[in-house]
Structure formats: C-alpha cells, structure tokens
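Tokens as discussed.
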C-alpha cells in the first residue's frame, strides 16, 4: 500500500495551454476569427481574380458610358453624368464581389464534400453566419476601396457625406454577403447558383438606378425602382459623394437595415437546422 506524506509538495501540473475553444461569454472568438480569416485569405490569395479583375471591369463600364453619353454634356440633378455614374459603379462592384465570396465558398465546399470541415468544429450557427458574412463584407469593402481609388484618377469623387458612404458600403456588402450565403446553402450545383445570379442579383443591380436617375422613369418603373432594396443602398451611397439623392434617405437607411436583419435571420436558421448541409 502506498503512503502519501501530507507535507510533501503537490505534484506539478502541466503548464500546457488548453486546446479548447477560447470563449468570452457565449461566443467562440477564436473560432470566429479563424473562419473569418480563412474566408479573407481565400480571396486575397487570388487577388488578381478577386480584386484586380473587378477594377478593370468597372473602369470598362465607366469608359463605355462616358464615351457614349458623357460627350453630350448630360447632367443628372446638376451633376455631370460621369460623376453621377461613378458611385453606382463602385457600389455594383462591391455588392457583386460580396455576393460571390460567400456563395462560391459554400457551394464549392458542398460540391467538393468538405463542408463537414466547417460544420464539425465547435462553432455555433451564429458564429458560422457571422464569419461567412464578415468574409464577404471584407471582400466587398476591399474591392470598393480599390475601385474608388482607381476611378478617382478619372472622375472626381468628393467625400461630401462620409457617414452615408461608410454606412451604405457596410450594409450593402453585408446584404449581398448574406444573400450569397443563403444562395450557396440552397444551391445543389453551380447551375442553381448561376440562376440566383442571373435572375435575382444582376436584374436588381441593373434596375436599381446604377446607370440612370429613376426620376426619368415612367411611373410604373419608378414605383418598381422604389420597391427595389438595391436602389436604396446605391442612392444613399451616391448621396455621400455627390450630395444628390433620388429617394428618401431616411427610408433607405431603414429599408437596408430591415433587409439585412431578415436575411441574417434566414441564414442563421439555415445553419441552425442544417438545411441542405447535414444528412
């Protein structure tokens, strides 16, 4: 029988740090940061495709419209047409890339069968939603800054109302990031994802006043534009640069926030229930 001396020193405990998730409150911050960093590094690794290409494409849009219309000295609300067009093009590039980041990440993971690598770690549905959304927002903002800086060499972009610019840039990137997340979870193959892009994202983007003022539309199309949430994020963003808005700015702020809350709830529920993610 082994006798233990009560005065002997206690055995030393291992000083090795715990390998469990670092939580502060109810959020796994280490896991949230890791997945967000993975999503950001994913698009930064192929920056020529994810950042440089959108800049070139947007400049081509600007050149085409300026050459076709700009020489006619067209003004929109007292603003030269190229200056009116530029913020809309920046916003379009931001939203398209925010959507592409989350949608491609999820659909590729599902098709390749490695979505389990995301679902198995100790991450809650809320943490998964936040991490993917933040990755999409970061790509949208990076592309937006790159496009705006490049475009400023050709078109003046004064920061008239920075608060509106920051708010609508963040909320628009978040909206399309969440929409891409929902589409990526819903889609079973790339054709389904292409349908979402071609029949939802692209039409709403092109019919949102990106290339024109909705005040010049017939009444029926004008009402359709006001029902389009993409219009409000572009209108508020453009107002931040050129001090001109086609719609009610307060309404736009509330509409964009409400749409994000709705889309965030849907994405969260999809992760929580395992919709098309778990057998």
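Sequence:
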């Amino acid at each position: 029988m082994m006798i233990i001396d009560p005065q002997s020193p206690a055995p030393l405990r291992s000083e090795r740090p715990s390998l469990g998730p670092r939580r502060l409150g109810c959020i796994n911050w280490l896991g949230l940061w890791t997945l967000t960093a993975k999503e950001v590094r994913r698009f930064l690794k192929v920056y020529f495709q994810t950042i440089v290409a959108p800049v070139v494409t947007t400049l081509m849009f600007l050149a085409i419209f300026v050459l076709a219309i700009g020489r006619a000295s067209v003004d929109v609300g007292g603003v030269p047409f190229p200056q009116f067009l530029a913020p809309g093009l920046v916003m379009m590039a931001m939203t398209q890339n925010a959507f592409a980041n989350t949608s491609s990440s999820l659909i590729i993971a599902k098709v390749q069968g490695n979505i389990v690598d995301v679902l198995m770690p100790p991450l809650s549905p809320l943490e998964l939603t936040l991490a993917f959304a933040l990755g999409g927002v970061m790509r949208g903002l990076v592309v937006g800054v790159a496009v705006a800086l490049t475009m400023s060499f050709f078109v003046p972009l004064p920061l008239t109302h920075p608060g509106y610019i920051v708010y609508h840039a963040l909320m628009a990137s978040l909206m399309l990031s969440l929409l891409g997340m929902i589409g990526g979870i819903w889609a079973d193959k790339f054709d389904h994802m292409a349908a979402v892009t071609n029949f939802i994202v692209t039409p709403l983007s092109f019919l949102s006043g990106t290339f024109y003022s909705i005040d010049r539309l017939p009444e029926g199309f004008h009402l359709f534009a006001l029902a389009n949430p993409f219009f409000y994020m572009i209108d508020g963003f453009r107002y931040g640069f050129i001090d001109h808005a086609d719609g009610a700015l307060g309404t736009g702020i509330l509409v964009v926030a409400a749409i994000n809350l709705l889309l965030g709830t849907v994405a969260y529920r999809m992760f929580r229930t395992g919709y098309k993610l778990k057998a």
